[in-house]
Amino acid sequence: MREGEDVPGEGNVDNEDGEEGEESEESEESEDGVEDNDDDDDANSDMARSDILISPPNSDEEEEVAPQSKYVTKSSEFQMADLGHPEFVVGQKFSSIKIFRTAVRECNLNMGKDIKFKKNYLAKCIVVCRDPKCKYRLYGRKCKEEESFEIRSFQPKHTCRRNHKNSIVKSSWIADKLIDKFRAQPNMPVKAILGEVKDRWGVDVKKNRLYRARVLAKEMIRGKVNLQYQKLWDYCETIRRTNIGSCIMMKLERPIPDLPAKFQRLYFSLSAMKIGFLSGCRPIIGLDGCFLKGPYKGQLLTAVSRDANNQMYPVAFAVVEAEVKNSWTWFLEALLSDLGNGPAEGWTFISDRQKSLVPSLDLVAPGVEYRICVRHLYANYRDSGHRGLALKDKLWSAAAAYTEADFLREMDELKGISPDAYDYLSKVDPSTWSRAWFSTFTKCDLIVNNLSECFNAWILKSRDLPIISMMEMLRKKLMKRYQKKR
To answer: 3-class DSSP state for residue 465?
Structure first.
């Protein structure tokens, strides 16, 4: 054979398990592992049953095939159903080397032993125990006349003690084995994951590996986060086509013409949300924003109204890059355009004292009635040094007053207690925070923005999902809520 030629069937394997060619002992060392609590009885009984399967020792090259009829005590073909508790015999055949490796790992994991692949080629595989003094050894080779992988010799008895480490129990392996658990409980606590691994396999795992397993399981269930942005345009078109009358608007960012566009903002309002609001809700809209918890962060801006039962009624929401003037202006323009002309007296908006929101309202809807949440007003009032139960009570009494006389009386009493506190509140337009100065058209005496806060808490679990998964969860929650209320 000329130098440089490859031996057929002996080349290194690039397989899905991440094993390329012959692996060194150093590379095979397990990442971490601590003491497990399983008893050795099951492992000892397995070894006792497999004592009759010990084959005669072969040469290092394993060229001679041991007689098989004497050792085969079960089916010579390995079935996928046997992966739960695999057992091996000489002459047993596997459909591929990948299934062979998986079965070997599972078998030794069940016995509390850790193994490594001393030789790991496409046509030949030698498995030994990680304990150099242990005599466990399994040799398999590709059949010459068929597409099968066959066990040629087997020394099944481990002479080492139960190993408290196992290199098979990695993040990806845990995610794959517990995928059904993660599907039912995506945010399963790390302690619960550790308990599940201990109970089923008797292996202890460090926390960082369990955290990583949970992340991988979420990706397996929901898909990778960045891939969902690539499908966002199709998702929006599907909503428009299947839910006639819905308003979905997406804004892209393309700083360099030659590069692909990047997602920036998304406005979302279903047809039922808009029709229900215009037909039966008070003309008041609470505005607020909350953080998204995914890897790309961002903000979710919301518009929530109050229905005839004084409960929250979501009108629209938008995913934006940040809670700044530009994004608020874009959201309000989309919202008012979607709602149409509205009542002759105009809409009433209520929100916290977000600095960028008020200028956006003045720009998009000048002269509109605007209220500020008294709870946020009190927080700023208190942080300015006006503390104490008496000052707090006077602020809330003035805000809750229904007539101008009651409002002025409460403010005069506040002035007698603290002139500084009175001066602070006098600088705030009373028509934005006191019932005595509200317009009577709205027929709503709301002075706090609890509706938006309730909505933010209601969608809490969806805020750490990828964007399409989040939109779908919100859509389903809204559909169920509207149907229940109807």
So the answer is: coil
CA distance 159 to 161: 7
Query: What does the alpha-carbon distance between residue 460 and residue 214 come to, in Å, rounded to a whole number?
Result: 19
Of 156, 143, 137, 144, nearest to 59 by C-alpha is: 137
Q: How far is CA 470 from CA 232, 305, 461, 477, in A?
A: 12, 21, 9, 11
Query: Mean pLDDT throughout 108-116?
Result: 83
| Residue 197: band (very low, low, confident or very high) from pLDDT cuts 50, 70, 90 | confident
What would you report as the CA-atom Rg of the chain, rounded to the nearest whole angstrom?
A: 34
**Alpha carbons 291 and 470: distance in angstroms, whole number:** 13
For the four alpha carbons of 87, 93, 99 and 101, in that order, the dihedral sign comes to positive
Q: Where are the beta strands (DSSP E) in 122-204?
A: 124-129, 137-142, 149-155
Q: Are 190 and 207 in contact (CB under 8 A)?
A: yes
**Secondary structure element (H or E) that encloses residue 264, with its range:** strand 262-269
Give the distance from CA 306 to its chain's centroid: 31
Task: Compute how many other C-beta atoms are within 10 angstroms of the C-beta atom of residue 278.
Answer: 15
CA within 13 Å, CB half, 199 = 7
User: Which of 32, 17, 41 minimizes the C-alpha distance to 203?
Assistant: 32
Confidence of residue 82 (pLDDT cuts 50, 70, 90): low
Listed in order, strand segments (DSSP E) in 270-392 are 284-291, 299-306, 312-320, 348-351, 369-372
Answering whether pTM is above 0.85, one says: no
